[in-house]
Amino acid sequence: MTDPAPRPGRVLVLNGPNLNRLGTREPDVYGTGTLDDLRAELAGAAPEGVALDLRQTNDEAELIGWLHEAVDTGSAVILNPAAFTHYSYALRDAAALVTKAGLPLIEVHLSNPHSREEFRHTSVISGVATGVIAGFGFGSYRLALARITGAL
Ligand code: DQA
Q1: C-alpha 81 – ligand 1 centre gap (Å)
Q2: Among candidates 17, 40, 21, 39, which has minimal Cα distance to 29?
């Protein structure tokens, strides 16, 4: 098992396409909480001294830029790549830059992609991630944060 140490004080929580629609998007799959709800929940769970920055984009290039920023600022990453999970080699390469720099990058999913359509069973990100947590709604993010901050 790989320990995600060092435990940086800055954590980027990055969300890919369509996750800005959380709350109304397929609530039976993703729940009724919004990204703002998630931001508040994580802020409440973060230990003192940990700066959380939750962002969302529908743009692959922007998401890649944020992973570069994580490397440049020594930030840990919690990444929900959304549909990019299943096919974006460019995002995979950027995620590899983070973990190769010795920074933790935890791939998270609200749903359990393995219990859904076949195309969701493949993640091109998992192979370069520190770890993967899926299927627990906002709990997936909370578990990732707990691991990154040393509580797990
Ligand atoms: C998701 C699962 C992906 O398959 C999907 O494309 C998403 C959300 C999740 O959090 O469960 O947009 O990453």
Answers
A1: 7
A2: 21
The CATH architecture assigned to 10-148 reads 3-Layer(aba) Sandwich (3.40)
Structure tokens at 119: 């195309």
What is the CB < 6 Å shell around ligand 1?
18, 80, 82-83, 85, 109-111, 113, 120
Give the bridge partners for 134, in sequence order. Answer: 109
Residues noted as catalytic:
30, 109
- Tell me the torsion sign for CA atoms 14, 70, 136, 60: positive
Using only the alpha carbons of the chain, give its radius of gyration: 14
pLDDT one-digit tens code per residue, 76-111: 999 999 999 999 999 999 999 999 999 999 999 999
Residue 137 has what DSSP assignment?
T
Q: Give dist(CA 146, CA 139) in Å, integer.
A: 10
Give the position, in ligand 1's atom list, of the atom nearest the Cα of 16.
12
What residues does each domain of the chain span?
10-148
Which of 111, 118, 125 most suits a substitution to test ligand 1, by most atoms within 8 Å of the C-beta? Answer: 111
- The pLDDT of residue 4: 46
